[in-house]
Amino acid sequence: MNPKSILGKYLSKQLLFSFFGVLMMVMGIVLLFEVVELLRRTSGRDDVGFGFVMEMAITKLPKTLELVFPFVMMIAAMITFWRVSKSNEFVIIRAAGVSIWGFLAPVLLTTFIIGVINITVINPIAARMNELYETLDYRFKTRNPKAVLFSEKGLWLREAIDADRFLVLQAKSVRQEKNVLLMHGVSILELGRNSELIKNIQAFAATLKNNMFELADVKIYEAGKPVKTANNVKYKTELTIDRIKENFVPPEAISFWNLPGTISFYEKSGFSAQKHQLRYWSLLASPFLLCAMVLVAAVFALRPNNRRGGVMYLIVGGISTGFLVYFLSQLIYAFGVNGDIPGLLAVWTPTLIVTMISVSVLLHLEDG
Questions:
Q1: Is residue 268 part of a domain?
Q2: Within a 10 A sphere around the Cβ of 182, how many other Cβ atoms?
Q3: Dist CA 156 CA 172 (whole Å)
Q4: Is 257 contained in some domain?
């Protein structure tokens, strides 16, 4: 079936209505539970108002919705398939000579487009809100309404200068004021390819702005040379405030568009980017996972005749299968994060297995 045909547009529209309806319902339930939990956490805290609680709940909402997004898609597909089966529209469509794959084509295309919009448009917004939630949670724990997401225990960073040199930066304390990063007790070690010390720069304080460290009260130590002192020294760097923040937030709080740059930066600096790489691959695979969940919904909810009964068993079976798929995907993903299995295998295996099993069952039903 041509997805642009009248019937294709009709099925796509039915799926979209069901999807947004389920999404709004799930968002309301999740927000309600988040507010109740946060009110419990903030009970007895006179410094925390209801507005702050709502702000935390709303900014945490995208993170929770991302976990249940495949279920939202599957339930929306099951509702759509149940409607067309109950009204005998599916029987009429099949009688018109449309195969089950022609019937599913516009639904799968719409699902894939939703998945692409999710990772390219919704994900950057959700990542920003996740970062805001982490900051608000940090302020709540530290009882500091102006705190930013930097640890008082200090900062350790590594950056590749060129093919033969890299630096290790350590700061005893870090804080942010607007677009400027303020650091105290800064030490910059320039190391060679074999980790031999080339230069040691000690500064009482430093600021990071526009890819430039401005060091104050500086002492420079080099082998075979006398100690140099200076009031102010400027030091070029590729580090930014956003890049440093990424050391304090999980990969889920980094936008889809920023993940490739983050992965490249970590690999050049000698750090492991395994978690970020897996996160990026999982986002790329998410539209295909949504399509796989729609195929699971088709196996359980797409029936030519609802008079056979057992509709409730089919619905429960579909939802249970969805939870099983999610559990196994998270389990395999954890193996990938730990390096027990290759990352690509950890990301794509659940989607491929679910797709192949669902297609096999649908082929059997089609032949039957």
A1: no
A2: 16
A3: 9
A4: no
The domain in which residue 284 lies consists of 6-144+274-367
Lookup result for tokens 């950056």 = 159
Domain count, the chain: 2
CA angle in degrees (0–180, nearest 5) for 283-286-290: 165
Do 137 and 283 sit in the same domain of this protein? yes
Distances (CA, A) of 336 to 253, 279, 330, 347, 349: 19, 11, 10, 8, 11
**Rounded CA separation 286/278 (Å):** 12
**Per residue in 188-236, pLDDT tens?**
888 887 767 888 888 888 888 877 888 888 888 887 788 888 888 888 8
What percent of the chain stands above pLDDT 90?
Answer: 18
Q: Which residues contact 169 (CB under 8 A, 6 or more apart)?
A: 155, 156, 157, 158, 159, 186, 187, 188, 189, 239
| Domain identity same for 28 and 118 | yes
Is the entire prediction scored with pTM above 0.85?
no
| pLDDT of the residue at 152 | 47
State whether 38 and 120 are in the same domain: yes
Contact 103, 34 (CB under 8 A): no
Instruction: Determine the Cα–Cα distance for residues 271 and 345; give it in Å rounded to an integer.
Output: 22
The two three-digit tokens of residue 169, written as one number:
């930066």
